[in-house]
Amino acid sequence: MNYLLFAALGMALLMSIGGTAAAQNVPANAGDDSLYFVTYYSNDVAGAPDAVVRIINDGDFNNGGGPLITLTAGMYVFDDSEELTECCYCNVSPDGLLSEDVKTQLTANPITGKVPTRGVIKVVSYWSTDNVHLTEPGLRAWATHVHAAGKNAYAITESKFADAILSGKEETLLQNLCSYDALPSGQPCTCTPKD
What tens digit of pLDDT does each residue of 137-174 get? Predict the structure, then answer.
């Protein structure tokens, strides 16, 4: 019986050493290859503080060894009825910061004409050239969230956008919806790089 226990412990030790060695063989430049991120916004009402979306370019993408490349954050803002209300494509330079206020920049000019109080924000990381958007990892995003904490009182938290899986159908749908969002009845969200 003890013989089997020692054999099992020995196998477990070998497997853990092998796993550690395999993990150490990961290339130093192997970063997060996420392309698609989602979060929510809420309490987008008068008297409440404004939530903020912050997006950075991690500076890893150089298109085959050249200089670092500016990436584009495709931002798609939905209301709680699952309707696209605004969208825009904002450039984020390597190691740059894009900071967007939800109330004044992402929901102020909805195509529906009704300013939403809560909904979903989706971001796709693109490399854009000649108005063609090709997915490319390298963007990271965080958002502050406004929570009701009593009568006329609010609390604010901040969290990283959740990674999501971008299907071809979802990407096509987002881009098609955004092209319709540019119609005269609505305005795209704004892009405000920060110093």
Answer: 999 999 999 999 988 899 999 999 999 999 999 999 99
pLDDT at 109: 86
Spatial separation of the C-alpha atoms in residues 166 and 130, rounded to whole Å: 22
C-alpha to C-alpha distance for 110 and 168, rounded to whole angstroms:
26
Are 115 and 107 spatial neighbours (Cβ–Cβ below 8 Å)? yes
Domain 32-181 has CATH 2.30.42.10: no
Among the listed residues 94, 87, 120, the one whose alpha carbon sits nearest the alpha carbon of residue 191? 87
Q: What is the pLDDT of residue 28?
A: 42
Determine the pLDDT at residue 98: 94
58 has pLDDT over 50? yes
Residue 76 to residue 106: CA distance in whole angstroms: 9
Q: What percent of the chain has pLDDT over 70?
A: 75
What is residue 168's three-state secondary structure? helix
Rounded distance, CA 148 to CA 141, Å? 23
174 Cβ contact list (under 8 Å, min separation 6): 74, 76, 87, 122, 124
Contacts of 100 (CB under 8 A, 6+ apart): 52, 53, 54, 55, 75, 90, 106, 189, 190, 191, 192
**Rounded Cα–Cα distance for residues 105 and 125 (Å):** 19
